[in-house]
Amino acid sequence: MRKTLQDSGSKAPVRSHMELMRITNDHHSSKPNRVTVDEDDDFIASESDRQALIMKEQDEDLDEISASVVRLGGVGLTIHDELIGQTRIIDELGQEMDNTANRLDFVQKRMVHVIKKAGAKGQIIMIIFLVILLLILIVLVVYT
What we know:
Elements: H1 2-7, H2 13-28, H3 31-143
């Protein structure tokens, strides 16, 4: 190598650099390429294994997420069914309240009509009658 460098010492430094590179490449060309290929194959195999492991973990995570979504869907359907049932109950309650309000209005109108017919004397008699009825009911409740 020195001989080659000395022969070309007077020539351009580019040429000596090229020869150095050629000598270095010739020196490392036989064995290292085979080792490099083996190392590359090992690296590719290990990376493939690592990527396969990552993909397996991602698949497991996706399976867990899928199961969670299915559970949430079931919970959502249950909530939906419950809301429909409660809406039905509230509608029925509203109808019953309307019916009760109508009957109460009817009874109040009848009471006003009866009170007008009875006058002051009739009101006193009605109060006495209701008090007596209340006392009878109290006695029945207490003794039975």
